[in-house]
Amino acid sequence: MKLHDLKPQEGSKKPRRRLGRGISAGQGKTAGRGTKGQGSRSGGSTRLYHQGGNLPFFRRLPFVRGKGFTPINSVTYNEINLDQLSGFVKGSEVSPEALAEARLLRDRRHPVAILGRGEIKVALKIRAHRVTSGARAKIEAAGGSVELIETGSTN
Length: 155
Description:
The chain is of the alpha/beta class. The protein is 12% helix and 13% strand. A three-stranded parallel sheet has the order 1-3-5. The model has no long low-confidence stretch (mean pLDDT 89).
């Protein structure tokens, strides 16, 4: 078999319709567009969001005001509460890597913030990018320690 022997599958290619070439051709006069109306004219189509006289979908949605702009330097944190740290053993180090292994992080690229909801029973060595004052007090009261990581060095 050579390249000049290749042919498309039988019945896979149809000849295109030649519209408006007389009544004997089967697509003469109105050429399958019907008579009159928007669809019969050239260029006669509607906008993407046109809904035939109904109020368009995007105008039915509530109007959003006062959002302002999204600040480009805003930081999204992985927020971890103290009650989520109950699975860690006494004396273990809780770092972003350890939290990722425990599947507690939403996104590994974001820095970690420790929040103070819940109680902590065991002494843990916590390394995070941010720790609230309430969480720090509870960790140190349980005999643990807190070390802050520079925000630039996320994993």
